[in-house]
Design brief:
By secondary structure, the protein is mostly beta strands. It has a domain at 176-311: Jelly Rolls, CATH 2.60.120. 5% of the residues lie in helices and 37% in strands. It is built from three helices and 34 strands. The chain has helices spanning 2-5, 204-207, 304-311; strands spanning 9-10, 15-16, 26-27, 32-33, 38-39, 44-45, 50-51, 55-57, 62-63, 68-69, 73-75, 80-81, 86-87, 105-107, 112-113, 118-119, 124-125, 130-131, 136-137, 145-148, 153-157, 176-178, 185-188, 190-194, 197-201, 214-219, 227-232, 237-243, 246-251, 256-261, 266-270, 275-279, 286-291, 300-301. The strands form seven sheets. A nine-stranded mixed sheet has the order 1-3-6-9-12-15-18-20-21, with no helix packed on it. The protein has a six-stranded antiparallel sheet with strand order 22-23-31-28-33-26, with no helix packed on it. Strands 5-8-11-14-17 form a five-stranded parallel sheet, with no helix packed on it. A hairpin with a 4-residue loop joins β20 and β21. The protein is elongated and about 80 Å long. It binds dTDP-4-keto-6-deoxyglucose. The site of dTDP-4-keto-6-deoxyglucose has 11 residues, from β26, β27 and β32.
Amino acid sequence: MAAEASAPFIHPAALCESSAIGGGTRVWAFAHVLPGAQIGAGCNICDGVFIENDVLVGDRVTVKCGVQLWDGITVEDDVFIGPNATFTNDPFPRSRRPPPAFSRTVLRRGASIGANATILPGIEIGAGAMVGAGSVVTRSVPPNAIVSGNPAGIVGYADQAAPDAPEAPAAENEAVAPLGVGAAALYRLRRVADLRGDLAVSEFEDELPFPPVRMYSIFNVPTRDVRGQSAHLRCRQFLIAMHGTCRLLLDDGSHRRSLWLDRPDTGIYVPPMIWTSLSNFSADCVLLVLNSHRYDAADYIRAYGTFLELSAPPA
Ligand code: T46
């Protein structure tokens, strides 16, 4: 970009003590940047921002008025920080007694922090996540999650549906419906209802996308906890909420979709290389997961950045 190739603009009323400011970055009036801070190209550092020494800011970052970035904060490319958002770096602050080391806070690529939100120390805000205005964030936020409230909880995901993805997960009469995220699909199990109640059935060999060799269940999950947050290299999975509800995020690196699991007669097929995240568990939720492979810790991708790299189409 031409603007980024140019010199930074430092407003005459700014106090910019750092020389590590990228091309095209604008530092506006009454901003104070300490000598150790590093700021990338094409950023907008608005009036009245304070940036300490041990701070790394990537490219194309917007920091609105009245924000302080303290020692220990890393802001990756394309992050937006709304006006008066507050960061902290000491979990137990006492006057004139700094901690031995400040907690690290990382805002991953493309995240947005709403106006006046408060981010507690040592937290990672995942890539593409969105923090609602005025939220108090007490735990790390998964990639692409939308959180709000005090304490902030997941209220949705920044979905990015495939253009040809069906609007609703599936029509009631469809046995298998694609979800528009890789080869992930929704399966309606065969249901047999009579006066004694309902029965849902699936023949492993004929009606499931793979013959399972392992099962596990997840239950007693505190509502605010998030599970999964991983993708598999080989293992295929089939998820059924046998009781209660939870929210599943599916992400193939290009398209995302979140849906509620809330029926014991419906399963979600998750092929390899689909990032999954499970949140918003009801207290009574029992999630059953069938697997195509035995447990293997080496089969997991647990860092979203690595997942995006591995799932990117070859250049
Ligand atoms: C997934 C989501 C939906 C085992 O020893 N055997 C197993 O089969 C499993 C699944 C886990 N473990 C051990 C490994 C860990 O020490 O149980 C512990 C908790 O596992 P994890 O942190 O992976 O749990 P979740 O809920 O984050 O993820 C699990 C599955 O591992 C994962 O494949 O997609 O549920």
